[in-house]
């Protein structure tokens, strides 16, 4: 009996080590800081800068995930700078077209001096990366065709969600997919 318990404990230890190694190799990092949340941000082109948009994001404080090391609020010539990071979502629509969308994860953001709950983030536009998501509670005929929205690929959301499942501080929510791939 004790031999089986010892083998079980050893197997459990190896499983925990493998899970921790998998989380570290995912390339994501969890931190507690002030960050910009851009998951529903509308974006506008930056004049004179190809493939660059400015996205209107919310300033949050707490746990978040990203691929870069955690950073605190930094004073710059443009104002107080933070980084855009990920916080778990509850629902999204899947889009699969050639529309541009904004990649904001870990991008620099300047806190609005007149409204410290808002930040302007400089993000890259991308397209043709495979199915991508629009974070929303409701699917409409224009969800996948209107404006440049901060987004991520379905694969990217799955990867960061899997990473968050390995953390104790920030667990993902069950995600409702509002549609099948378009």
From TrEMBL:
Signal peptide: 1-20
UniProt KW keywords: Signal
The name this protein goes by in its record: Uncharacterized protein
Species of provenance: Microbaculum marinum
């Amino acid at each position: 009996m004790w031999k089986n318990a010892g083998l079980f404990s050893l197997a459990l230890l190896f499983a925990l080590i493998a899970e921790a190694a998998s989380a570290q190799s995912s390339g994501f990092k969890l931190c507690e800081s002030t960050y910009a949340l851009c998951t529903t941000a509308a974006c506008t082109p930056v004049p004179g800068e190809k493939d660059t948009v400015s996205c209107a994001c919310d300033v949050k404080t707490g746990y978040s995930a990203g691929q870069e090391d955690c950073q605190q609020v930094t004073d710059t010539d443009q104002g107080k700078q933070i980084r855009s990071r990920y916080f778990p979502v509850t629902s999204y629509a899947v889009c699969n077209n050639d529309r541009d969308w904004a990649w904001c994860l870990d991008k620099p953001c300047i806190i609005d001096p007149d409204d410290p709950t808002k930040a302007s983030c400089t993000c890259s536009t991308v397209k043709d990366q495979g199915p991508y998501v629009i974070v929303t509670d409701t699917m409409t005929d224009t969800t996948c065709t209107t404006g440049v929205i901060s987004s991520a690929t379905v694969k990217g959301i799955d990867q960061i969600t899997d990473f968050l499942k390995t953390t104790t501080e920030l667990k993902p929510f069950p995600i409702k997919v509002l549609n099948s791939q378009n």
